[in-house]
Design goal:
By secondary structure, the protein is an alpha/beta fold. The chain contains 10 helices and 6 strands. α3 links the parallel β3 and β4.
Length: 210
């Protein structure tokens, strides 16, 4: 329930109808929740948040047209008091950190049990943070590591597209030797020894998208 004694109204944003249906059923099983509406992407979420003014917005990250990470700042700019929780299959620490920095209060995985989902919505609805334990553990495990610089991330994105060092150098207008220095630094920071493993780790953690 909200402080005013009414049900917590939840807007569910996900591009998979079966996922939305499952969440809706979970909400309807709780006496203090009400399904405010359903949206299939971030653009719809922005429009529906304007008209419905839900108490909590439960939003996925990867969706057609506009993903959750792009929708969150727009929603919060228009309604700074919006309480947003990310529900996603992407549990990388970088995804979670980006979402939380953008203003989301919650971050949990679609593999979460019913009870965790319910507890997370109640926590976020009360204006407090909730991060799934497995995601929180990942964030803590990487907290003291050196972060990839913007240039290193740019190099890594090009590597993920199959660009050789010369191609990376040409696209970024830097020398081949500078690319080699960046690649060596990337390997060291990610704890890998080859380009394929670097891309795999970066995608899993949410450092880059492919």
């Amino acid at each position: 329930m909200t402080p005013e004694g009414r049900k917590t109204r939840v807007l569910v944003v996900d591009d998979h109808p079966l996922m939305r249906e499952g969440i809706a059923n979970a909400l309807q099983a709780e006496p203090d929740f009400e399904l405010a509406g359903e949206a299939s992407d971030g653009a719809e979420a922005i429009e529906m948040s304007r008209t419905l003014r839900p108490d909590v917005i439960l939003i996925d990250l990867q969706m057609p047209r506009l993903g959750g990470l792009d929708a969150i700042p727009v929603i919060l700019k228009e309604a700074p008091d919006s309480r947003i929780a990310v529900l996603t299959t992407y549990g990388g620490d970088a995804y979670a950190e980006r979402a939380l920095r953008l203003g989301a209060l919650g971050f949990l995985l679609k593999s979460s049990l019913h009870r965790e989902l319910v507890d997370a919505i109640r926590t976020v609805g009360a204006g407090r943070r909730y991060v799934s334990p497995t995601v929180a553990e990942q964030i803590l495990s990487h907290m003291n590591e050196d972060r990839l610089s913007d240039r290193e991330l740019a190099v890594l994105r090009l590597i993920s597209r199959g660009e050789p060092n010369k191609g990376v150098a040409r696209r970024l207008s830097i020398s081949d030797q500078t690319v080699k220095v960046h690649v060596k630094s990337i390997f060291g920071k990610l704890g890998v020894c080859d380009r394929t493993h670097a891309v795999t780790v970066a995608v899993r953690r949410g450092l880059i998208d492919i």
